[in-house]
Amino acid sequence: MADYDVVIIGAGAAGLAAATALTRHGFSIALVEARNRVGGRVYTVRPVGATLPIELGADFVHGRPSEIFGLATEAGLRLYEHTGNTWATREGRPEPEDADEDHGEDGNVAAIFAAIQDWRGDDRSLQRLLDERFADARWAGARGEIRRYAEGFDAAEIDRVSVAWLQQTELASDAIDGERQFRVLDGYDRVLTWLRDNLPASLADIRLLSVARELRWRRGQASLSITAPDGEPLGDINARAALVTVPLGVLQRSFDEPDSPGALQLSPEPPGKREAMRLLGMGHAMKVVLQFSDMFWDPLPDRRANGHHPITLPGVSFFFSDDHVMPTWWTSHPVAVPILTGWTGGPRAAALVDASDETILDEAVAALARVLGRKRRDLEKLLVARYVHNWGADPYARGGYSYVCAGGVPAPAALAEPVDDTLFFAGEATSTTGHTGMVHGALQTGYQAAEALLRSLRPGQ
Ligand SMILES: Cc1cc2nc3c(=O)[nH]c(=O)nc-3n(C[C@H](O)[C@H](O)[C@H](O)COP(=O)(O)OP(=O)(O)OC[C@H]3O[C@@H](n4cnc5c(N)ncnc54)[C@H](O)[C@@H]3O)c2cc1C
User: Among 59, 302, 360, 374, which is most exposed with the fewest C-beta within 10 angstroms?
Assistant: First the structure.
């Protein structure tokens, strides 16, 4: 006898969206989460003394996705647009970037983006596209820029990432004003805690600190063994169907090393999933947040000219450099707070995963000193607090977010495909609409999985 209609594994964006939709239709659910909080890779902390909530996971609402803007309105959350000047290092000096200067001529990165957007041939990796079409020396700078973009934004490896998928993501982003970025002033986690707080207690059983270890399933039956994070058995949860929303990195690890921490064994192994996951990559992302005593990078005009500020970045929102450790930095502009966020993605982030948090933070401060042309100890004197969460080393994430490898455009749909009306899958890696790796993409997949469940099951039968 099933205790619930559906057991949902993972209380991130996808799991909470599915829980919301299912309970609205009268389904009973158990929502099983390994951490002591909901939200997953949306992770906001509010340390004493911090002037804004600190985002250790997702930061931006990319574009104007209705999934997030709708929830923010319902929840009364304040979103603000992240505007300001983009600066970039050119020949060792930071300069403001002129958005109009790149018209897609030969040698410009816009021409490579145009080639991706117009791509019509067989799929291939970005590296292969560059080798075939942009090998000439005059493209060297643009090749570096597109590599930094694919690694930094998509957390991808360029010799694996699919051109057809990059095209899909670019078009999907254009459709929702993706060049605009917004932040949740109250903290990104409030979007997801709003969903949690509105689950009806009569239908939703939220189990935190409950690690899903083994899901035994056959048509019409799913039985999930859970333990506490220290391994203490917490019994089984029986349901008529299961929805798996653990991150791709966790699922990949579960198939390859089923006994590793955080791994979820699916017994028997469902068909087609291993093959689908081979065509998907779990990208790495490393982000640090540094809080200073003042906004030394954007001093008031009267302090700018006194010679004590070798490099200043007035009105800066994003700052792109070619630093080999942490090339990308952003502020909270136009909200004036002395906080800088450092970011690296792809192979450079992967190289930091095995380092301690202390080492990562030290490396980040050293990188900031390099990109701003300052002495590290001078920056350290201004540093008030520093934060990092190593997602690659986190057993419940195993990376930042996913991307699609060459030839893999059908793979997210294959991963999402329900098995025997009993096993269902959701999460950012199952996005088929080009919103892979995004909070709104994860929410969409949760709602879609709930629709598939609604078609397969009638509540309480
Ligand atoms: C550093 C970083 C920055 C990012 N920045 C942005 C951004 O600016 N904008 C944006 O849109 N997106 C961003 N993302 C991506 C975004 O956070 C994710 O795409 C989205 O939150 C994923 O939601 P999800 O539900 O698919 O997965 P998750 O949020 O990971 O949810 C899965 C849940 O499963 C749980 N779990 C895992 N294993 C088990 C187990 N064995 N048993 C029980 N529970 C388990 C996890 O703890 C987690 O809560 C960022 C991600 C990272 C890491």
Answer: 302
Reported as a single tens digit per residue, the pLDDT across 57-76 is 999 999 999 999 999 999 99
Residue 247 near ligand 1, beta carbon < 6 Å: yes
* pTM score above 0.85: yes
287: tokens are: 């982000």
Give nearest CA residue, ligand 1 atom 13. Answer: 58
Give the separation between CA 411 and CA 260, rounded to whole angstroms.
25
What would be the CATH architecture of the domain defined by 44-83+283-393? Alpha-Beta Complex (3.90)
Fold of the CATH domain 4-41+187-279+407-456 = FAD/NAD(P)-binding domain (3.50.50)
Neighbour tally for 114: CB within 10 Å? 12
**Segment 326-354, tens digit of pLDDT:** 999 999 999 999 999 999 999 999 999 99
CA–CA distance from 28 to each of 8, 193, 331 (Å)? 11, 19, 43
- Ligand 1 center from residue 201 Cα (angstroms): 24
The DSSP bridge pattern shows strands 85-90 and 316-320 to be: parallel
Dist. CA 308–CA 375, nearest whole Å: 12
